[in-house]
Design goal:
This protein is about 50% helix and about 10% strand. By secondary structure, it is an alpha/beta fold.
Length: about 475
């Protein structure tokens, strides 16, 4: 008997059409999500999906072939063809940042299965110079984890790709202004920060309470009077201690007294280290030593030891040392923004730096898109939450910074409050020539013993020498 298969064939064709519709819808949704993340338009994707759906429902087997072609076109437009990214990361192995990163990229590989990662661990101290060497040889990575102060030198040599075309204001609103400033050079954005950190005032609440003080000082005048009260209560107390002859710690006072590193608009950048503000800042720090509120030229280790032992009432430190203090039994401490300079009404404004991710220049368009998708993912809110929970890194993500996870943590809330008055550090390559001469000048300009008076003219001479050294290094 001759069998009639026409009914079955009709059912099969319908099923094929339905399946293809579902595939296209799923692809369209995936493309839409990926497109929203990168801040680009979704009109073409929506049109492709609706056109493919209408075509499929109106036709039969031959239409299925056309629809399959449409699926391929949609996937191609979303850069879903396999891509391999070479990624340089600079985390220290261990249960902190490195573990958080591994957790994040494991999730990334599930979300972006067509992007294959070739992750290579690099030494943070050598990664910048190694990146330059590799890039000159045409063998640099596609994506690099960098400190924000690498941005200027790397951009000046043409090694980084601007991210401007991948982002919009909605996307950028997810990142703090300070962190965006860290990776902005000559008006263009070259990276996204995954964390941010800087100096703030840490204080021993027990010593303040014992001296009848309700909280940390908010002005430099109050800093001096509080220091006197702390010393009067207990002569073995160190009212405040930090490495004052280190340019990184001196810089916030320099800004608070009205200074700036470079003359605005000068090309090449002209240093303004030899200025009234620089002199006033140095004289104030010298006064802390001469009034016995701070030991002469203390080191970073001296500061940490004095605080963990309960001898120091105040230090100026960053979140990178917070774990030392959290683990110190019996230490009652908290964090607050640095005080305002009484004479200028300007805050002592530390520079807040960032570790983040940047893209190499000269990549093909599909690799650029995949690179940005990676950068956006590893600096996303969830990725930063991993870093905070596992390593104590402060977030650049605005929603996470405002969440109870951060604001409910008294230790980290104080650091976030300090960020609001942070001072942007110039991304100029000339900054690399600045820190050593400034440090040398401060070492020569500050007292080596309590009571030693260093004259204003001597300080001015040292600052002038630092400025000359910077200009010489710039050529």
């Amino acid at each position: 008997m001759k069998r009639n298969f026409s009914h079955k064939r009709a059912i099969s064709t319908s099923i094929i059409a339905i399946i293809v519709v579902l595939v296209i819808i799923i692809v369209g949704v995936g493309v839409y999500a990926a497109t929203i993340k990168s801040g680009t338009t979704v009109t073409s994707v929506s049109t492709a999906v609706s056109t493919a759906t209408a075509t499929t429902t109106a036709s039969s087997v031959s239409t299925a072939t056309t629809t399959a072609s449409t699926v391929s076109t949609v996937m191609s437009s979303a850069s879903q063809a396999p891509v391999t990214l070479t990624v340089w990361e600079t985390y220290s192995p261990g249960p902190g940042e490195d573990a958080a990163f591994n957790q994040t990229i494991s999730t990334f590989s599930q979300v972006y299965p067509w992007i294959h990662l070739n992750v290579q661990a690099q030494s943070s101290s050598a990664a910048e110079s190694d990146f330059i060497t590799a890039s000159l040889a045409g063998q640099g990575p596609d994506v690099l984890r960098e400190a924000n102060d690498w941005t200027g030198p790397l951009v000046a040599q043409g090694f980084l790709q601007p991210l401007d075309s991948f982002v919009n204001q909605t996307f950028l609103s997810e990142y703090s202004n300070a962190s965006l400033g860290d990776y902005t050079f000559n008006g263009h954005l070259y990276g996204l920060g995954e964390n941010i950190n800087g100096l703030a005032l840490l204080y021993n609440k027990a010593l303040f309470s014992a001296a009848g003080l309700s909280g940390p000082p908010t002005t430099t005048s109050q800093l001096l009077t509080d220091s006197a009260a702390l010393l009067a209560k207990n002569s073995s107390t160190i009212p405040i201690i930090f490495p004052s002859n280190n340019g990184y710690w001196w810089y916030p006072f320099f800004i608070g007294f009205g200074g700036q590193i470079f003359q605005p608009g000068s090309v090449p950048p002209y240093p303004e280290i030899n200025s009234t503000a620089a002199l006033d800042a140095t004289l104030f720090l010298n006064k802390l030593v001469n009034d016995k509120y701070m030991p002469p030229q203390p080191s970073d280790n001296d500061m940490t030891s004095a605080f963990t032992s309960g001898q120091a009432a105040m230090i100026i430190d960053g979140p990178w040392d917070a774990s030392n203090y959290v683990s110190t039994k019996g230490l009652q401490w908290s964090v607050a923004p640095l005080p305002t300079v009484s004479n200028t009404s300007m805050p002592i404004a530390p520079t807040w730096g960032s570790q983040g991710w940047a893209m190499s220049s000269g990549l093909p368009p599909n690799v650029q898109q995949a690179s940005f998708d990676f950068i956006a993912f590893v600096t996303s809110e969830q990725a930063q939450l991993n870093l905070f929970k596992m390593a104590g890194d402060l977030p650049t993500n605005t929603a996470l910074a405002a969440s109870s996870t951060i604001t409910g943590n008294t230790t980290f809330a104080g650091f976030v409050a300090q960020e609001a008055t942070a001072s942007p550090l110039p991304n100029s390559p000339a900054m690399g020539d600045t820190w050593t001469p400034v440090g040398n000048a401060l070492t020569a300009a500050e007292p080596t013993t309590t009571g030693q008076i260093v004259s204003s003219s001597t300080i001015q001479g040292q600052l002038d020498s630092a400025e000359t050294a910077i200009l010489t290094a710039e050529g």
